[in-house]
Amino acid sequence: MKTRQAYIAFLIAMVISLTVVAQEEICVLEDGDLVFYLDQGWDAEKRKEVSVQFGLDSLMLEQILSTPASGNFEYEGESWSILHIEGDKIKLSKNIGEMKGQMNWKKDVIFSPNDPASGLDGGPGYVDMAYVTYGVNRLTKSVIIQYPSGKTKFILPEHNDAEEVLISGSFNGWSTSGLPLKKTSDGWEIELNLIPGKYLYKFIVDGHWIGAPGNALSEDDGWGGKNSVFYKYNYKFELENFENSKKVYLSGSFNDWRKKGLKMSRTSKGWILPMYLKEGTHAYKFVVDGEWVTDPDNPVVRPDGAGNFNSFMAIGDTTMFRLHGFTYANQVRLAGTFNDWNPAELVMTKTEGGWELPYVLSPGNYEYKFIVDGEWITDPHNPYSIGHDEFMNSYLAVEPNWTFSLEQFPEAKEVLVTGTFTGWSEENNRMIRQTEAWTFPIHLKPGKYLYKYKVDGEWMIDPSNPAYEENEFGSGNSVLWIESEGFTP
Length: 489
What we know:
This protein is mostly beta strands. It is built from 4 helices and 41 strands. The chain is flat.
């Protein structure tokens, strides 16, 4: 029998995807309720299939299907509603807002992204920082103040006749209590401890939800209204001098090198732009009255491969790339998916035992190669690779949050893991035999994934994972859910 935590986790997986109904309607969302349509006529095999695919505790399912009358059903502290509708059909339902357990359903379910490959950073009301590369606020009034201490003050002007004002957002799971603002002579205010990132929020004035006046940045809330958007900054770009210039913009790899995307503000010493930036290494330049300029106060510049140079900065932990040996080489460079395979940009430093280059990477999966005196080679000390022959690249997972493991087939020559996260490519993710299992570490963004193993050319689902879905071939796909870590205010 599944544990309560596993039971709740499986239900979350179903609701987020809204695609669990394959050939018959078994689980749906109806007006905020999680609804199961069950059939007392199911045989033992069908009941087992439903239990596995939809995460329903097998004992709970048997008790429900043997219940003769409609009414309330209690199971492990949860109260469900049972309604006998027609024939042997049973409607099992519960309001999502009443779900208990460690998960915050309103944050992790209703507002979660449906498709991790959609390119969206989250559903309405929810922020998945894995998809947020950078951000700049658009305040028309001084209604948000970020202090060096890390605290952030939110201000709601006026509303002097209100009895209570609350703030609610992605930083507190959209709770309608617990964060009251303090009344001042000019309105209301509150200070919160927020880590760098993107946040969505609204004010609740005497029970009425409103957006943030003075904040011009917003996005759809999924209910026909708008959520105000705020970025907690973690970096500040500065360009001194150029006082006589009319307009200065910041452009870089983080905004696809748009020439007029990020306008800088004039100061007494030059120009400035504070912003949020995702962890990793970023190339950038300033655009001064239409002319591209590297940062004169940043000594870190690298060639762009087209005869020009870019300035570089980084946020986060450093990954050390090392190539052992090859001390006879005159020059070794590094290239990979993290720098668009630019062969001229990253020159490695020669050491006593080989070559090395420190480089900051955000959590994710990367491919790379070394270029030794013009010859491209994979990393001889890294067993993980992607592709074949001349198209083979070394593979690196930075801060992996999942490891695929297959504890069988010790005599197999090649084992791959593939799925929706690779577009079902049969070239990617070659597993390595370690001790008693084939393994492959990976960093996956929150969401649902389908996958299979390919053992010496033969496809198979994961024998250690009971969660699966049928496919058009009738052979099934294993199901994996990666949950969002969220934020701590």
